[in-house]
Design goal:
Layout (H helix, E strand, L loop, with lengths): L23 E13 L2 H6 L6 E2 L4 E13 L4 H4 L1 H4 E13 L2 E11 L2 H10 L3 E3 L1 E4 L17 E8 L2 E9 L2 E2 L7 H4 L3 E6 L9 E20 L1 E5 L14 E21 L2
Parallel strand pairs: 5-6
Antiparallel strand pairs: 1-3, 1-14, 2-4, 3-4, 4-5, 7-8, 8-9, 9-13, 10-12, 11-12, 12-14
Length: 263
């Protein structure tokens, strides 16, 4: 009998596969804190193919996502499958002299997102993420309005890793996209060889993105703390200065990837 599936686990009908083929669609609410850290520590998380910008700039992002896939309508239909939260660190860099970004560390609370991320090259780990929701009625939370404070935090293996907040100050004009969200992100795809040979896959990959849109972008002053864990290397990346933050809605579709072999 032929087993089917775009990803593991394979099964007779293919319905057990965790990740369906792209296109994948994403819509989410994003909270980001821009900061500066030790430039040497930021440069140290970049692979050799990427050049550091040199100013220690970085962004910590908290995201609340809904996702879907054309090949598997169950993902959009079941919130336990398609909805998730994640937190990640992004650093700017240059590739062939052009501005790009890198995500060296990321945590997520959903197995589909975890597996899909590793296929892309996102180095996802399991974590617990909380993000302030915006409300439209009542007094149970903040509105999208000047003076409202939105917070996020992430834990993994019982250790708090980071917490931050943004106080909304101004609504940005239509078409404005925070820099951390508009740079193409280059990942390292790595599949080691359990038999002891060289990696089966080792390259740089960038998602091919269509239908990118940002809305309700607010910016304002921010705060960020990063904590120690014996399972992480975030300590050297503690902020020396927090330069501001943003909160917005974001959407895009991933249709595939551009790949660059590594030597």
């Amino acid at each position: 009998m032929t087993l089917r599936g775009w990803s593991l686990p394979l099964s007779p009908g293919g319905a057990a596969a965790l990740v369906p083929p792209p296109p994948w669609h994403f819509s989410g609410e994003i909270l980001g804190i821009d900061f500066r850290a030790d430039p040497d520590a930021v440069a140290a998380v970049l692979p050799e193919a990427l050049e550091p910008v040199g100013d220690g700039a970085a962004t910590f992002v908290f995201a609340d996502w809904s996702s879907a896939a054309d090949a598997d309508p169950r993902i959009a239909a079941d919130p336990a499958r398609g909805q998730y939260r994640e937190a990640y660190l992004a650093v700017p860099a240059r590739l062939d002299g052009r501005p790009v970004a890198r995500v060296p560390y990321i945590w997520v609370d959903n197995d589909l997102s975890f597996a899909r991320g590793h296929i892309q090259g996102f180095p996802k780990k399991a974590g617990d993420i909380a993000i302030t929701r915006a409300v439209r009625v009542g007094r149970g939370g903040p509105r999208l309005a000047a003076g409202s404070r939105f917070a996020g935090h992430v834990c993994s293996l019982g250790r708090q890793l980071a917490r931050g907040a943004v106080t909304l100050e101004r609504a940005e004009p239509e078409g404005f996209v925070p820099r951390a969200l508009r740079l193409p992100v280059w990942h390292t795809r790595l599949v080691p060889d359990l038999a002891g040979g060289p990696p089966l896959v080792r390259d740089l990959a960038r998602n091919i993105v269509t239908d990118f849109a940002a809305a309700d972008v607010w910016t304002g002053p921010a705060e960020l703390e990063i904590f120690d864990s014996e399972f992480e290397e975030l300590g050297p990346l503690r902020p020396t200065e927090v330069t501001g933050g943003f909160r917005c809605s974001l959407a895009f579709t991933i249709t595939g990837a551009e790949v660059r072999p590594l030597g």
